[in-house]
């Protein structure tokens, strides 16, 4: 079966070129991600390209399957000045810059993963470059992809860019071959690196020479964990201070960051994970410099690394983990595909952990953006229907939807969730199914409990008000049919006892806020206005509690009226009348 993946590109505005965002295995996931970038304003235009590997030739066949947005195809006209050179690099040294290495890692990432190499090792190792050149098609495909991206906003033909890139790469590769033959890159033990960087002093090519020595030092490693442990073995041997220390530390940090940026390497270092949620929690623990719960026999290097992250000794590596966390939070993959309830718990757990790590690596804005994107995945049809499946009644469904609300962020996501709640409330079956068979007071309390959760929620106005009002209407109908308040007038002749009964309803969470509560308050005020009410109320209060005077009774009654939502002064004025 042919190997197929879908690459997502974006243009971020006029005058910008296409840049690769990510690759996905599934067409629908890639299409959805591209449209999301466009809708959220993260791209002015998007493109999804299907890449199919021809196993016979090793070539990839490209086919654009989606292109949306305001695609910028305008190029400079002749006479407007010299056309901008689309090449990001002009000389071999440019290939070792951060941006160049990031660009190289995209088209050759899969090959590097199979070889268990980082970009820095590839660029400094004659053996690795020889193997890469031997692939032929992989090498040329990488050059072509970079050339096509660079040609999007340039008059320079793709063929000319390909030729320039090939010349540049060939010069860089030949340089490494020559230096390897000359013995420029020494074979060192861990203990010898400190002396080596001290001898380099402030040489302009110090980083290049150190990179070659590190590549040879790491060559015998048989896996990502061994690679990481070899790098970390150099940390206690750093020069005490000065430029030499900074040079060696930077070289170690650079390779560790590249290693951690690779999904395959990271998965291997962390060991098997049951789902993305578990993997993300492990990444978070690592980022915070805490022990990572890995499978037995794994995790030696990663937990050693966590100790250095706790001291913030490897900033580039730590930044790579921060970027990976944000990328995975924004991804389309579910944290716990089979269980949304578990996913919500995991999301809250991650949020509680990551808020402790916000700062120079994770800004508050980035975290909010990532969790908003993740929340968006949870308010779509499929996970919500799965989450509501155990529910038998509409009120149970609303209750579970409010659980989702408590665990997601983003105004748009809250509005989307309300779009699932309102139809349930407006359905003809809602009132029929609400605590069916239970006494009217119990059904009213169930409605009031739901309304209180809605009023406390972060649902957006006017949806929150609409839902709260709808629940009040339902409770009002239940009360009217059962005659709960009317029966108090007919059954409880004593005004003082009737007032106490109404106060218990108002303060006991039985009545919904809105018209039903106002109806009870009107009845209470009418009861207070009955002739002889206070004398009867005072007599009963003093009988129940010895030593209570009139002023204390008035104060207690005013407090109860306040808890029922009635202005005490208004209530006492009615009482006095």
Range of strand content: 5-15%
Number of domains: 4
Write down the overall mean pLDDT. 87
Can you list the strand order of the major beta sheet? Answer: 2-1-3-4
Which outline best applies?
A: elongated
Radius of gyration: 34 Å
DSSP summary, beta strand count: 4
Can you give the helix content as a percent range?
55-70%
Distance between the termini: 90 Å
Low-confidence spans: pLDDT under 50, at least 5 residues? 75-83
**Class by alpha and beta content:** alpha+beta
Q: Count the helices. How many?
A: 28
The major β-sheet equals: 4 strands, antiparallel
Q: What's the oligomerization state?
A: single chain
What do these coordinates show?
Helices cover 63% and strands 6% of the residues. It has 577 residues and is α+β, with helices and mostly antiparallel strands. It folds into 4 domains: 66 residues; 166 residues, no CATH class; 108 residues, no CATH class; 95 residues. Strands 2-1-3-4 form a 4-stranded antiparallel beta sheet, sandwiched between helices. Strand 1 and strand 2 form a beta hairpin. About 2% of the residues have low confidence.
